[in-house]
Amino acid sequence: MSRCVTVSQGALIASMVLAVTFLGPVRAQQGTALAGQKVEVSAPPGESGGADRGETAEYRTPLAGEPFHTVFMGKPVAIPAQNRGSVTALTLGGGGYLPKQGETSVTPIAALFLMRDWQSSRTRNVISIFVNDLEYDKSFGNLELVARLENNTVPFGQKDVVNDHEIKTSDTIWGTVTGSLGPGLRYKVAPFQVDNDLRLQLLGKAGYFYAKRTGDTGPDLVLPPETMLYGVKLRGRYDGMRRNLLELPHSGMAAGFDLDYMHRDRWADFGTTPDALFSKSNTQDYTQLNGYLMAAGGIPGLSEKNRILFSLHGGATPGKSADRYNAITIGGGPLPGETGDLCRPDYPGTMFSQVLVSNYALAALEYRRELAFFLYLHLRETLIWADRASVTATNRFFFKSSTGAATTIGLDTGFFWNSEIYLGYSWDSGFIRNGKPGSGLILIWNKSF
To answer: Residue 288 maps to which CATH number?
Structure first.
């Protein structure tokens, strides 16, 4: 992948494989028209176009999986119904930052998305080499056996960033591998598409944590010991949303939560100076709660081409148990839309894993306009409050309250070869860069097979 700006080696290589943060961009294109052609009429047979262009009010936005008929350049075009229960998609792209974040000006993105929904089982997998999220569910009526495997095992040093400068002495190689297994309940809900269900799962978790020094790690930085991890997760999901042809939320609601308890088997005090140590008694066991609520719908008095979307994400780590290695991660990337990605808190213009928080609340309000059945423009305002991780030049790691706002304009369009492009520009008031405003640009190409 060619680059015209300089990025730090570690951030470049890691970001190419850390696309699990960008699950949402895997909006599997299920048969869109060529974006270079002009829409004259955009409606199913027997319906005329929307009222915004002199057409009747009977216009209906084409929905994911359904057949669609239209006219291009005076010629009829038919898009057949698609099987949304079998998706293979490749995501490629990148994000750029001005001014740069730390030593990073651009981060490439790459991931493979696989989803299959069979009669008595289903699987959803995001594969990105060093970071993967794999799940397989076996159904016995409404009862399921759920198996998950997650790993974040980037073999490169990770540095903390403060005031847009990387703290070189904070460089550490660390990661986790976690497997989960347990029972779940799953019920189909309206509008009864492949992604519409109500799920409740109780999973036992076991994993491994490691942390290693690099040549840049500060001599006074004490790392936690490598250890086994044991815990339990209670996870709930509801998705009653209907998606459009580009798999963007069109109508309905979705909500979910994750309640996690984790025990670190071998543990010890770690950090730097005595007044900046994370004690074993506070951090060996921790509980985290994360949740979200999303809704999409029409605007009274306007045609279906105009949509409004609202989302709220929040999370908390009670007590003093949050640290560098278990903090909640808020990143950037395309806006969440795919059912398995709705839980991801997205703050536009942020690079992967830059923002670590112990507690947070993030709200977003978006207006979307359907310019053509394959072309959507959106304006989005995002507000955030968080107890955000910060670090000093002496590697003193702590959390402090921060607020911010980001304004985003984006374009989703169908493209050639059964693919989709997302282009977004964001302006941040200063949350990302510790009070200094900045901009981010992201370009994503999703190809379905």
So the answer is: 2.40.160.50
